[in-house]
Design goal:
Blueprint lengths: L1 H7 L5 H10 L12 E7 L7 H20 L4 E7 L15 H5 L19 H15 L5 E4 H6 L4 H9 L1 H9 L4 H4 L5 E3 L12 E5 L4 E5 L5 E5 L5 E3 L1 H12 L3 E5 L6 H10 L6 E5 L2 E2 L16 H7 L2 H9 L6 E2 L5 H15 L4 H6 L1 H6 L12 H11 L4 H11 L9 H21 L7 H15 L1 H15 L13 H14 L6 H12 L7 H8 L1 H12 L5
Parallel strand pairs: 1-2, 1-9, 2-3, 9-10, 11-12
Antiparallel strand pairs: 4-8, 5-6, 6-7
Helix pairs in contact: 2-3, 7-10, 8-11, 10-11, 13-14, 17-19, 18-19, 20-21, 20-22, 20-25, 21-22, 22-24
Length: about 550
């Protein structure tokens, strides 16, 4: 353990860098509460998206890193701001007209448009918890509705009433003049309509812990700030939550970064030390727009998990959190294959390299071995060439490469085969566009098919290629089971037929035979798909039967 801790104390992996920065917070004295509190926030105004998940995952990675370098106990809270008023109806949920009738009501007072939970807020909270539980996170779930209504926030709310002028002064500096005239840190919840009101305060009585205001109809009301009658505006709520819970670390997106001094100052005014922060770049959709819970753009957690493993998503989230990420379906195959590359590398790495490996931060000390005997990208190409309808079709090819592999012995491989078929059917197949070959391409493809059926002809092509490139070396043995030999045959055909640059030859193969402009290392594809089957695929492409 000492070797691991020593390596962690100098590791440049970003979770360890953040963990060391957090540890400095307790250089003089340990936390009075006896533990370090990590927090993530979630606004359930819409269905949870990958950004919300990423926040919990990345915080968990820092928490694990902290536990390697420190013996101080830790906790992780996922806090849902479900008392927020519903400002607009999300575009990706049913029963839009019904929801319109409940605008400005707290999310836990808005009926569930899906009809499965007591409220819209409860529905979205349950979705988030299901996702977090799927990934096995160790967390505690807190609801703002519960905290406000059961009195757990009463102490900090009374303190906010006592420090009202000081907190307002912080907020007013950040607002435009017109907004200042109506702004209050307190948002009363109307006793009759149940709606969250954005109205100015006529009086704040700190001694009684009460606020007085006029509602939108001009009627005057006086309410206690405690007991769920009032909630805080979102910026003061950030700082107040930190103060109420004693939060030591919270990360949030770049769009919050300009508000950090406001959050920190309010937390300090309310009597607590602000937490350490980590700001990550935003998640974008395929058009480069910020993903949003209310609009539902970008890929959802359920959608990712329909096409790839939980670990591949965790791997994607680990990468460069300070860099904006486009979250759309095209990133999935690359994430799957890179995750398994890192798994294979981990087995041979020393402690320093392992701590820098993403899979350590995904799995901790229990990093599994990869059972992906065929890359996910190759599975997609096999599915494309065979028009696979089920994973059993892909297993027929997998077993040519790994005869002893089965669904039972390689469950990850089996799941990936199923994911690959689904991904192919939903994304690859609809986008396939086959084209007829040019005269040069047709002649080359005819020779490639002939070479796959005639070893002597294959060697003749390799010899002619060697003469073209000026190589004086003996010809290899004919071995149609060797993907390197097959790749040399494909390469030789391209050279003999004068493709310059040679990538135009491979592009022609992909466009004529696979209906795409990019594809696999073709020698490896032939080895998996089958030499005879590949020759027949070429025949079908030349006959125009693939489109």
């Amino acid at each position: 353990m000492s070797e691991l801790r020593d390596a962690a104390l100098v590791s440049k992996a970003w979770p360890f860098e953040e963990a060391r920065r957090l540890l400095k917070r307790f250089a003089k004295t340990p936390p009075e509460k006896g533990y370090v509190l990590f927090e993530t926030g979630y606004g359930p105004s819409g269905l949870p998206h990958l950004g919300t998940f990423g926040e919990v995952l990345r915080t968990t990675m820092i928490r694990r890193a902290f536990e390697v370098i420190s013996d101080i106990p830790t906790r992780l809270i996922c806090f849902s701001d479900d008392l927020d008023g519903m400002r607009k109806v999300p575009g990706n949920v049913p029963n839009q007209d019904m929801l319109q009738e409940h605008l400005q009501k707290p999310l836990t007072s808005v009926p569930d448009p899906f009809g499965t939970h007591d409220s819209f807020g409860d529905h979205n909270n349950a979705m988030l918890r299901r996702f977090l539980d799927t990934f096995g996170f160790d967390y505690e779930f807190y609801s703002a509705t519960e905290f406000y209504r059961t009195g757990k926030f009463d102490e900090v709310l009374l303190r906010a009433a006592e420090k009202y002028d000081d907190v307002m002064a912080v907020m007013l500096k950040s607002l435009r003049e017109e907004r200042r005239q109506t702004y209050s840190i307190f948002l009363p919840i109307h006793p009759e309509t149940g709606r969250v009101l954005y109205v100015p305060m006529k009086n704040v009585d700190a001694a009684k812990g009460e606020i007085t205001f006029d509602d939108n109809d001009g009627r005057e009301w006086t309410l206690p700030v405690t007991g769920g009658n009032v909630k805080l505006q979102w910026k003061p709520d950030f700082g107040a939550r930190w103060a109420a819970l004693g939060v030591d670390f919270e990360m949030y997106g770049k769009d919050h970064s300009t508000n950090t001094p406001i959050y920190d100052r309010i937390c300090s005014i309310l009597g607590q030390r602000p937490p350490e922060h980590f700001t990550y770049e935003l998640f974008l959709d395929d058009q480069g727009q910020k993903i949003s819970k209310s609009s539902g753009n970008g890929i959802s957690i359920d959608e990712w998990l329909s096409y790839a493993s939980t670990e591949s998503l965790s791997y994607f989230m680990f990468q460069k959190p300070k860099t904006a990420k486009r979250m759309y379906f095209d990133v999935i195959p690359k994430a799957v294959d890179e995750y398994h590359q890192q798994l294979r590398a981990y087995a041979t790495q020393d402690t320093k390299a392992r701590l820098a490996n993403p899979v350590y931060h995904i799995h901790g000390h229990n990093v599994p071995a990869s059972d992906m005997v065929v890359p996910f990208s190759m599975l997609l190409n096999l599915a494309s060439a065979s028009s696979a309808e089920d994973k059993e079709t892909l297993w027929g090819f997998i077993n040519k490469y790994a005869p002893d592999a089965t669904a039972e012995t390689h469950p990850g491989m089996d799941a990936a085969a199923g994911h690959a078929v689904r991904y192919f059917q939903d994304f690859v197949k609809p986008a396939k566009v086959f084209r007829a070959p040019s005269d040069q391409e047709r002649a080359a493809l005819e020779d490639l098919a002939k070479a796959l059926r005639d070893g002597d002809f294959a060697l003749d092509l390799i010899g002619r290629k060697n003469a073209i490139v000026g190589k004086d070396e003996p010809l290899p043995q004919v071995d149609f089971a060797d993907e390197e030999f097959l790749q040399s045959v494909v390469f030789a055909v391209g050279k003999v037929h004068g493709f310059e640059p040679l990538r135009d030859w491979f592009k022609a193969i992909y466009e004529v035979l696979l209906g795409a402009s990019q594809g696999p290392r073709f020698g490896g594809f032939i080895a998996l798909y089958g030499v005879t089957e590949s020759a027949e695929l070429i025949d079908a492409g030349l006959a125009g039967k693939l489109g």
